[in-house]
Structure formats: C-alpha cells, structure tokens
C-alpha cells in the first residue's frame, strides 16, 4: 500500500480545522475554529459553507449518525453530532440546521461518539465525566467521572463497553453496573486519541509521548511504535480493520493492523488533529492545524497468485504482471476500486457500483455485473465460486457472474465479518457468530440454507479463527478453527443426528491455512511451523498423528507472524515487520493425496517407496484405513514399524463376514460404538458382546447379553476368568445378581462360541453365493 496525498489548493478555513467526517465516499464535512462547517465534494472539487456557528461555539469533534443501520428513520441518518467548547453538544442536520443543543459538561465537550447501532451517544469532557445519551439527546447515565480531562472515547464492538482516556491510562468500562473495569498504563505522556475497531477488536492509542500503540481488547500490547519527533495527535482505523492511519505534525502515516508502516507522507499541514476514513476504506481526510483539509487515497495495493502480480496503480487502474514472460496488462475501471481478490485463476474486483471477474487466461474480457450495495467489505474465493460481503448481506456468485445464494441467520451483522470469521469451500459456507463467539453457522453453498439438520457447530470456548478445507467430497468436509486458548481443533461439518466430535490437533497455534490443492493444513505453533499432511488421521488412528507432521523452527519469523496464503506447496508468511517469507514444503504429500483420491493405491505405495520418508508411509497408512484398503494399510503400517497393527489387520482379513471386517476396521480407528452398531444391525449379537469383552467393557457386555437374552453365561465366564487372573473378588452388583447359583461350564461356553462362528461363516457364504447367482442372471 501507499498513500497518494493531495492537498486541495483551497484554504477554505481561516483557522485550524478541528474535525472532519464523511457522508458518502465522495462528500466530506469539515469544522473549524473559524466557526464554519464546510461541505467538500471530491468529484467536482467544489466546497460550500453549510452553516456559520455563533462566535462563542468552537467545534471540537464531529461524528455522523451510523448510516447502514439507521435506515428505518432516514431523517436521523442524515445528521451528525458536533461537540463544542461551550460545554454543549449539537445535533445538526445535513443541511446545517441545528436540531438540538444540549448542555452536557462543565468546560469543553472533547469528544462525542454514536454507538454502532445509533441507539446511544457517549460524550466526554474537560470535567472528567463520561456520559451516555439517548439518540434524541436525553441523558441516560453518567458512566464515570475522574479528576482529569477525558480527551478521547470509543465504543466497544458490541456497543456494551466504552474505552476512554485518563491521563496516561486507558480504561475500558462496561455499561452494566458492577461489571469489571479494565485499566492499564498505556503511554508515558497524556493520551490524546483512541480508536477501537469492530471487525478486528483491536485498540489504537496515541499520546504526547510521540508514540502510537496497538492493543488487544484485554489491554495486552501488540505493537509499540518508535518515538516520533512530535506528539501523535490522531489515529483512526479503516472500516475493515486491515489498516489504520496516524496523524502528527506535518506527518501522515499508513499502517498495517499489526503496526508496521506501509507509507509515510510529509504534507505541509501543521498538526493533523483528526482523521476520518471514507465508508469504503479507500480514502482518508485529515483536519489540519493550518486550516487545510488533507485528502489521501490508498493506492499501490498488491495481490499475488502463482505467477501473477496485480497492483492497484491508481484509483481506477490495475496493472497485471505475469512474471514468467514479463507480460503486462492494464485494467481500467469506470469507478474507483474498493476491494479485490486474486485466487483460483480468477481476479475478482469490486468497484463502488460493479463487480468485475477476470480469468487469468484472458484479461481483456471481464465479466461485469452490478452490485446491490456499493461498499463491498470482503471478497472470499473458492475453486467454483466467490463470496461478497457488504453492509446489506452475504452473496455467493459463480465465476460466470450468476447469483447462487445468500445465507442469513438471526442477528447477522455483516459489517464485522472478515477473512478470519468467514470461510468458503466448494460446497459449504462457515460463519462465526459475533453474538455468541462459541458458535459457527454452517450453510450449504448452493442454496444458502443451514447445512444438514440445521444444528449449529458449538465449541466449549470462544472461537477466534475458522477455515474450511478446500478439496475432497462434501461428506468429508472438515473445518479447522483456533479457539481462545490457542488450541487448534478440527471437526466434520456434516451435521446429521450424531454429534460430530471436535478433536484437538495442536496447542498454541496463532494462525492457520489450508492448501488450495489438497487437504493439507499448516499453522504457526509457539516456536514451530507445523504442517499436518493428513489432518484426517485424528479420526482414523490418532497414535500415528505425530508421524504425519512436518515441523521446523519458526523463530526466524519473529513475534506474531501471520500466514498469508498456502498455494500449491508454497506457504507465504508475513512477519511482524511486514516482510514476506516464502516457505516451500515437500510436494510429495500432495501427490499422495491425488493418488489416493483417485484410488491409485499401487502408485501411492510406489511413491512412498521412492521417497523413503516415514511421514509419507504414516499418511498412507491413515489414508488406506480411512478408505478401507487393508492391503495397502498393512504395507504402510509395516513400513513405519507398527507391528501390532499389521497383526491386527491380518486378523481382520481372516474374519468370515463383511460386517465383522467393517466393525474391526472401525475399532482400529477407535470408533467402538459404530462398530458395535454395525454388528447389532447385522444380527451378530455374540460378536458385539465379544468386542466389549475384549475391551473390558464389562458393563456393556452384560447389558447386551441380558437385552438380547443370549450368552449371559459366556460373559460371566470371561468375567470370572478375568478376576481370577488378577486375584480379585467380584464386587459388581449386576454380575453378582446374574452369577448367583450359576455354574460356569467352559466346555459349553466354547461350544456356543464355535457355533456362533460357524453360523457367521455359513451366513457369509450363503450371501456371497446368492450375490453370484444374481450376477449370472
């Protein structure tokens, strides 16, 4: 990114400009100590005076009523709150009519902010008071009061907390009485400005100690800038939370959300007292100490995919470079570019009115369709389709521009969704809820309806980041997520009847990504970069999971690195200083995934023999068991020295019936209940009892024997033998009850078992012969 700064050579204001605010992406209002409120039209470069305030009113802060949510009463959405030095705040219409002036504080009202819903206003003043008002200007409560002036205030993302300054301290106070207040020392000088973003939940602060800092919502420091030459007078988040702007004396800086700086400009402005981002996040306006209003456009944004590099060179122009042959294409747009995404051989660009879809094979003929609402805040791509998020909803389109679906759920707030909280695959859309952070909504991509039986995916802890795998069948679709404890978990998105298990894959994971070509997952753990070559192993044979991992030291990526992309076998990581690091992982696991997905088992074995790596054999073993190919599983387990499993697989092969084999394969994967269910459904009650005896599930074995009125004596005999081996006495009441007066005859028990096995063999051979007769016919 860069910022292209333009100072419109019109000094409209005679005194310092104290505050600015956008109404649309092309219209701005500014207020100055010369008592004027001026409207700027950027399309025509015209300005007009809206109102001249009385001489005793010096404006300090301005905030427009939130537009996207205030649609029910449109007149209200066309107004702003202006705080002033005379202790009042004023509700002013777009046309400049002062609707209401309210006595609010003793001394100047230093800041005023609407909450995200537009249902409440918070004001802070020189008198150290923080007050909450209704949208009509009625006092609801005095939230807090202190002995020092409060210079800045911001609402929490859920509008239930307020962040304000207290000298060198920052304080987060919930609106609910008696709730815990968070307070910490943030700067070595007085804090002048704060901002709290609703999408990423991060806090910005700027102080007289000439530093700006980034914090999480628990007050933990994430970034601490170097001291500047002058105090930092303003900071502001971009609406989508990806960037922020910093203003100081003759200084405008554009930074990434992690703190490092994209661009530094030195406009001749004096101090920049207030910064406002346009609604679409493409422009910045600054209120300057020398009477100027500074405008800046965010350009030079860059997207990369395989051999293509796309750069936004001007507001309406992109340059595409193919690094293989150095071919350059220029893409011209009618309106300014707001968001873009390059992935899966397609470039999707949203402008203020339209969406363009380019194929990397042909840059000359984009597919163009009109947007329902201008400001797209997020574009996500999958192989078959892409997702657009704007203030009004979530829309799924095919790359041919056909509208597919629009998922909805109660209380949906699209303005706070980002790439960490929404995930898209070829058949599924996953969205993390903001109201309850432990819940993930799952939707069918083709219809936009809830997946399966409509059950939500819920976890015991709050979820931070979600990601769907991209390949394979819909039935096998998995979702990986990181929770508040930084545990990486995986579960199936299939939601029918049985509650799917959530299994922990790793701990202290900070960032994750699925490969776009096969279901390989990578993540940054504590001090290690880890690749899970076959995450499904946890469902098949958890014991060999460590053997399917690739790990390397990640200390070179410094603190708080982030995975940007995982394309083919290349992972791109952004370090905390903004530099990109590319890591190549072995290409062989991806080839193995390909062979297995097309059932080329012999080729898979040949590949593993060629590569001679334990990780490959371990992945193949798990893949073979998952796909019920026991011959390949046996070879793979032998190669990694799991002899007990080789013997178990051999014993499975000798089982007489298909159901028994299936049940024992499930037992190898640890799915005991499913194995038992298959046997019971096939009428193999004795075998179901026997697997419980083998696992020492004594309670369940007796329960089944009693329920089906068979083999009670067999269970009692094995129980007795077990107790004798360990020299123990029977203490279980149920066993004592059924063993009363019963004499165990092992000869009879063995005969019964033989009979059951013979019965199963006969049943299996008769079903096989009837199948053969059917085939002949």
TrEMBL record:
GO biological process assignments: apoptotic process; articular cartilage development; bone mineralization involved in bone maturation; canonical NF-kappaB signal transduction; cartilage homeostasis; endochondral ossification; establishment or maintenance of cell polarity; fibroblast growth factor receptor signaling pathway
Main localization of the protein described in the UniProt heading: cytoplasm
SMART domains xrefs: WD40
Pfam family membership, one: TPR_IFT80_172
Residue stretches of each WD repeat: 102-134, 184-216
Keywords, sorted A to Z: Cell projection, Cilium, Cytoplasm, Cytoskeleton, Repeat, Signal, WD repeat
GO cellular component assignments: 9+0 non-motile cilium; axoneme; centrosome; ciliary basal body; intraciliary transport particle B
Subunit-structure text: Component of the IFT complex B, at least composed of IFT20, IFT22, IFT25, IFT27, IFT46, IFT52, TRAF3IP1/IFT54, IFT57, IFT74, IFT80, IFT81, and IFT88. Interacts with IFT88. Interacts with IFT57 and IFT70B.
Protein name, per record: Intraflagellar transport protein 80 homolog
Lineage start: Eukaryota, Metazoa, Chordata, Craniata, Vertebrata
Annotated gene: IFT80
């Amino acid at each position: 990114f860069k910022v292209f700064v333009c100072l419109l050579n019109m000094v409209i204001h005679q005194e310092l400009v104290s505050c600015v605010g956008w109404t649309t992406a092309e219209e701005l209002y500014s207020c100055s100590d010369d008592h004027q409120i001026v409207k700027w039209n950027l399309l025509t470069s015209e300005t007009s005076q809206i109102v001249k305030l009385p001489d005793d009113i010096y404006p300090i802060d301005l905030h427009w009523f939130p537009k996207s949510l205030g649609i029910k009463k449109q007149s209200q959405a066309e107004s702003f709150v202006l705080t002033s030095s005379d202790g009042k705040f004023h509700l002013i219409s777009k046309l400049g009519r002062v609707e209401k002036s309210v006595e609010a504080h003793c001394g100047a009202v230093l800041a005023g902010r609407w909450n995200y819903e537009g249902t409440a206003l918070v004001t802070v003043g020189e008198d150290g008071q923080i007050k909450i008002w209704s949208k009509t200007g009625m006092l609801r409560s005095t939230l807090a009061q202190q002995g020092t002036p409060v210079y800045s205030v911001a609402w929490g993302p859920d509008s239930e907390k307020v962040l304000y300054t207290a000298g060198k301290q920052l304080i987060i106070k919930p609106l609910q009485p008696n709730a815990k207040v968070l307070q910490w020392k943030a700067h070595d000088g007085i804090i002048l400005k704060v901002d709290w973003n609703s999408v990423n939940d991060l806090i910005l602060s700027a102080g007289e100690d000439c530093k700006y800092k980034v914090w999480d919502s628990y007050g933990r420091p994430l970034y601490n800038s170097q001291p500047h030459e002058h105090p930092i007078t303003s900071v502001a988040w971009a609406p989508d939370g990806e960037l922020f702007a910093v203003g100081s004396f003759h200084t405008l800086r554009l930074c990434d959300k992690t703190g490092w700086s994209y661009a530094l400009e030195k406009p001749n402005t004096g101090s920049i007292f207030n910064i406002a981002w346009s609604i679409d996040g493409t422009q910045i306006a600054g209120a300057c100490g020398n009477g100027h209003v500074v405008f800046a456009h965010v350009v030079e944004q860059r997207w990369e995919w395989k051999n293509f590099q796309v750069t936004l060179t001007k507001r309406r122009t992109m340059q595409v470079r193919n690094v293989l042959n150095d071919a350059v294409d220029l893409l011209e747009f009618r309106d300014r570019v707001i968001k873009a995404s390059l992935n899966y051989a397609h470039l999707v660009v949203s402008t203020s009115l339209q969406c363009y879809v380019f194929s990397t094979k042909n840059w000359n003929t984009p597919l163009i369709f009109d947007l329902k609402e201008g400001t797209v805040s997020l574009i996500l791509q999958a192989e078959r389709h892409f997702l657009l998020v704007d203030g009004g909803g979530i829309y799924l389109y095919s790359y041919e521009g056909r509208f597919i679906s629009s998922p909805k759920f109660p209380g949906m707030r699209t303005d706070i969704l980002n790439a960490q909280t929404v995930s898209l695959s070829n058949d599924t859309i996953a969205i993390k809820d903001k109201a309850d952070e432990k819940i993930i909504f799952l939707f069918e991509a083709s219809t936009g309806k809830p997946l399966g039986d409509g059950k939500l995916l819920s976890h015991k802890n709050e979820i931070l980041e979600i990601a769907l795998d991209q390949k394979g069948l819909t039935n096998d679709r998995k979702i990986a997520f990181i929770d508040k404890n930084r545990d990486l978990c995986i579960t199936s998105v299939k939601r029918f009847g049985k509650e799917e298990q959530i299994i922990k894959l790793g701990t202290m994971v900070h960032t994750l990504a699925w490969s776009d070509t096969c279901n390989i997952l990578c993540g940054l753990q504590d001090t290690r970069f880890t690749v899970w070559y076959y995450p499904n192993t946890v469902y098949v044979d958890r014991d060999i999971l460590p053997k399917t991992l690739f790990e390397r030291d990640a200390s070179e990526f410094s603190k708080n690195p982030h995975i940007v992309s995982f394309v083919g076998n290349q992972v791109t990581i952004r370090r905390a200083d903004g530099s990109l690091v590319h890591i190549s992982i072995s290409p062989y696991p991806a080839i193995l995934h390909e062979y297995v997905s097309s059932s080329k088992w012999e080729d898979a074995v040949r590949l593993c023999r060629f590569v001679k790596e334990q990780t490959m054999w371990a992945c193949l073993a798990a893949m073979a068991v998952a796909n019920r190919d026991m011959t390949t599983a046996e070879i793979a387990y032998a190669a990694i020295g799991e002899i007990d499993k080789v013997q178990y697989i051999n014993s499975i092969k000798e089982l007489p019936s298909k159901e028994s084999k299936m049940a024992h394969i499930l037992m190898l994967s640890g799915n005991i209940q499913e194995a038992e269910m298959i046997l019971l459904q096939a009428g193999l009650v004795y075998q179901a009892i026997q697997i419980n005896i083998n696992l020492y599930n004594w309670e369940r074995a007796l329960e089944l024997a009693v329920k089906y009125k068979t083999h009670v004596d067999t269970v009692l005999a094995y129980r007795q033998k077990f107790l004798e081996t360990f020299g123990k006495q029977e203490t279980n009441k149920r066993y004592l009850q059924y063993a009363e007066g019963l004499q165990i005859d092992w000869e009879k028990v063995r005969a019964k078992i033989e009979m059951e096995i013979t019965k199963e063999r006969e049943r299996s051979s008769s079903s096989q012969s009837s199948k053969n007769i059917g085939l002949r016919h």
